[in-house]
Design brief:
Rossmann fold; Type 1 glutamine amidotransferase domain-containing protein; two-stranded parallel sheet; 31% helix; alpha/beta; glutamine amidotransferase
């Protein structure tokens, strides 16, 4: 049976200040997409509201825009996937083996409050599927509870974009909250690499998380390895 992966992207186009654009950090999608495509997995993209997912301008510039990003931008069919993402109500979670939350600062606004994304995530997890995220994508796991009412991240090893990286990136003052701190307050055992902006993946059973954009490929490879062994 072909494995199926559900990618989650944001609908948010700017910070609190509408003149400051943000959106999906494209390589966090393209790197994972390449890994899953190489394994022959079916892939679909969903967003909290459906329809268009804006792109983070910084992720489209050198040196952050690598070959996978450029290939995606040059492919009308793939770009169309980000213009017409599915709404959560259109997704049947029992059809998916893994969910993968992409990042970009945009997700800090629309991922945590999406009850429908939480429902999808909970169902995939409770059915033995994999829950994964990269960078700010872990904001999508902040408020997800399991069937017994406990937090999905409670007591679990997890990583995601660190507050130190926010500061070094010069964007800490724009953040609506400190995601690392919020994770810890929910009982997550947050971990980060000693050096910022290097690939780092944390695996806790069927929970797979990557720290930053440089971790997207390795995160997807870990998801694929678990699927292969199950």
């Amino acid at each position: 049976m072909t494995r199926r992966i559900l990618h989650v992207v944001s609908n948010v186009a700017h910070y609190d200040d509408p003149t400051q654009p943000t959106g999906l950090w494209l390589s966090e999608l393209t790197h994972a997409w390449q890994v899953f495509a190489a394994h022959g997995y079916d892939q679909r993209i969903v967003s909290p509201l459906g329809s268009r997912s804006p792109l983070e301008p910084r992720s489209l510039k050198w040196p952050l825009a690598d070959a996978s990003v450029k290939d995606w931008l040059a492919d009308p069919a793939r770009m169309a996937l980000l213009s017409c993402t599915a709404r959560p109500a259109e997704i049947n979670p029992v059809e998916f083996d893994a969910i993968y939350f992409t990042g970009g600062h945009a997700v800090m606004w629309d991922f945590p409050g999406s009850d429908e994304l939480q429902r999808i995530t909970r169902t995939i997890h409770e059915r033995g599927g994999i829950v994964s995220s990269v960078c700010h994508g872990y904001c999508g796991l902040l408020n997800t509870r399991l069937d017994d009412g406990s937090m999905l991240v409670g007591g679990r090893r997890i990583t995601g974009f660190s507050w130190r990286e926010e500061v070094l990136a010069g964007v800490a003052a724009k953040m609506p909250y400190n995601a690392e701190k919020e994770m810890k307050q929910r009982g997550a055992r947050y971990e980060k690499a000693w050096l910022p902006f290097v690939s780092n993946v944390v695996v806790d059973g069927r929970l797979v998380t990557g720290q930053n954009p440089m971790s997207a490929k390795a995160t997807a490879e870990q998801v694929a390895a678990i699927l292969k062994s199950s």
